[in-house]
Design goal:
The structure is a single chain. By secondary structure, the chain is mainly beta. It has one domain (3-53). It is 9% helix and 24% strand. The protein has 1 helix and 3 strands; from the N terminus they run E-E-E-H. It has one helix spanning 49-53, and strands at residues 3-9, 22-24, 38-40. The protein has a 3-stranded antiparallel sheet with strand order 2-1-3, with no helix packed on it. The chain is globular and about 25 Å long. The mean pLDDT is 92.
Length: 55
């Protein structure tokens, strides 16, 4: 597991609490983002709980 630059999905997620950013390359939720929907940055979103747990 490696820390990476923040990224998020460009699609709105349901439930809304999944509208987060990720910063680990092996985050289970982040790895489900399709390449065409992956964007750099946080987009003002809270940090993913899975990523927080990897600290």
């Amino acid at each position: 597991m490696a820390k990476v630059a923040p990224y998020h999905t460009t699609r709105l997620e349901d439930p809304p609490e999944r509208n987060v950013y990720h910063d680990y390359d092996n985050c289970p939720a982040g790895s489900q983002i399709k390449p065409e929907h992956k964007a750099s940055g946080t987009d003002g979103r809270p940090r993913c709980l899975d990523c927080k747990a990897m600290d």
